[in-house]
């Protein structure tokens, strides 16, 4: 059982290690306890303010609490307090990065045997401003037996998407259909990645002008004939 202070320190340490692995430059942990964020990281000429949290249940807490000589206190975060959470999920030993807009939400790490839509942790592995809500059908859950169809789960398991910077570069180098083939997913999945990251794709007709439109059409038609 982790002490509350230790949990916070562990979340910060895990976030630092993960962000360095993702090639962010991490500034020294913020020493001032009155600031609403724990870390500042830098990449591609942008700074990001990070609030690290330990969350055993996947809940993205939208408030901070502390105690002093005057008792216990609690304060709700404002939208401009920081940019992203670094939410450490101990059951998975993973860190996810929902934006502050997701405060108060719950990020699921185990498939709920319920028709209620949910946020899935794999959609938040990098700084995430938008993410779709998932449903049990995508993961092969049979609500009549309350079991997960393992074969369907394997088929529908989401491929780990590339980092935002990598995908942003790819969409201007090749059509989404080809990117999907490279990753073993559909072009619709690639479009969802772009939407989740907020990446702007080339305008309609871009690849026709580049001379690869016909090739993409042929590939699409050949797949439809299979």
From TrEMBL:
What's the protein name?
Answer: PD(D/E)XK endonuclease domain-containing protein
**Organism's domain of life?**
Bacteria
> Which InterPro entries does the entry link to?
PD(D/E)XK_Endonuc, tRNA_endonuc-like_dom_sf
One Pfam family recorded for the sequence: PDDEXK_5
The PD(D/E)XK endonuclease domain sits at: 2-103
Q: Provide the species name.
A: Brunnivagina elsteri CCALA 953
Entry GO MF terms = nucleic acid binding
């Amino acid at each position: 059982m982790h002490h509350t202070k230790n949990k916070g320190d562990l979340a910060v340490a895990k976030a630092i290690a993960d962000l360095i692995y993702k090639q962010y430059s991490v500034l020294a942990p913020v020493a001032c306890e009155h600031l609403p964020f724990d870390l500042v990281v830098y990449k591609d000429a942008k700074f990001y303010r990070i609030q690290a949290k330990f969350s055993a249940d996947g809940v993205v807490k939208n408030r901070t609490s502390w105690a002093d000589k005057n008792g216990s206190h609690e304060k709700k975060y404002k939208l401009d307090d920081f940019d992203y959470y670094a939410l450490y999920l101990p059951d998975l030993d993973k860190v996810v990065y929902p934006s502050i807009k997701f405060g108060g939400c719950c990020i699921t790490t185990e498939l709920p045997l319920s028709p209620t839509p949910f946020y899935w942790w794999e959609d938040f592995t990098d700084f995430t401003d938008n993410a779709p809500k998932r449903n049990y059908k995508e993961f092969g859950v049979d609500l009549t037996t309350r079991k997960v169809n393992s074969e369907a789960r394997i088929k529908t398991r989401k491929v780990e998407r590339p980092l935002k910077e990598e995908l942003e570069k790819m969409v201007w180098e090749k059509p989404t259909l080809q990117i999907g083939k490279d990753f073993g997913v559909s072009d619709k999945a690639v479009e969802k990645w772009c939407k989740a990251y907020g990446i702007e794709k080339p305008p309609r007709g871009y690849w026709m002008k580049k001379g690869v439109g016909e090739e993409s059409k042929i590939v699409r038609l050949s797949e439809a004939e299979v």
